[in-house]
Amino acid sequence: MKSTLQHPVLGDITISRTLRARRISLTVRPSGQVRLSFPPYVSQHRALEFLESKCDWILRARAKYAARESKPTLSAEDIERLRAEAKATLPQRVRELATQFGFRYGKVTIRATRTKWGSCTSQGNISLSLFLMTLPQHLRDYVIIHELCHTVHHNHSAQFHSLVNKIVGGNEKQLASELRQHSIQ
Question: Is residue 97 situated within a structural domain?
């Protein structure tokens, strides 16, 4: 069952009680549209309380999307330049950091991913976004170290974060926070 609620601060909110939902969830789209989904066993009152508790988060998400929209978009030529630069530098940097900190990994691929800076498969293969080239070097290194740590811990457990934190000199939280200030083009 879908309906629309006029929220005094957020405007129109699409409310969806659905059998597919396993929990209460919020989605903010790039357009700023907000969707509140919840399972049938959760009351609408409880779902709306959840919405109210997340107002600040929604406003921040909308602001982040608005900031992205105001950024100039990269041309195909710019993207190809970034791709060439990434292929020329990132695999070598992965090799250097892996050697320095004693990691073993599979292959390194460069992709034009816009949702993640990097990822690591269970086989230890590392994929990096070519948009890493838009970041300062210390944040590129942080992302690479994060992915190298996934070759040891294939999750985001306390042990994983402890390893990352140890390698980055106790600055994991600060680096993660700084990285969140950047968006993939």
Answer: yes
pLDDT of residue 184: 80
Report DSSP letters for 155-172, one per residue. Answer: S--HHHHHHHHHHTTT-H
- Closest among 162, 136, 135 to 149, alpha carbons compared: 162
Distance CA(93)–CA(99), nearest Å, equals: 10
On whether the CB atoms of residues 47 and 68 are closer than 8 A, the answer is no
Considering the domain architecture, whether residues 48 and 133 belong to the same structural domain is answered as no
Which ranges of the chain have pLDDT less than 70?
Answer: 69-72, 185
Q: What pLDDT is recorded for position 71?
A: 65
The residue with tokens 């066993």 is 41
Structural domain ending residue among the three candidates 22, 39, 70: 70
- Classified as helix, coil or strand, 118 is strand
Q: What is the pLDDT of residue 74?
A: 83
Pick from 129, 142, 128: nearest CA to 175: 142
Is 26 found in the same domain as 10? yes
Q: Exposed, middle or buried: residue 100 (CB in 10 Å: 0-12, 13-18, 19+)?
A: exposed
pTM: 0.67
Range of the domain at 160: 76-180
Same-domain pairing of 16 and 86: no
Number of domains making up the chain = 2
Other Cβ atoms less than 10 A from the Cβ of 30: the count is 12
Residue with tokens 């969140």: 180
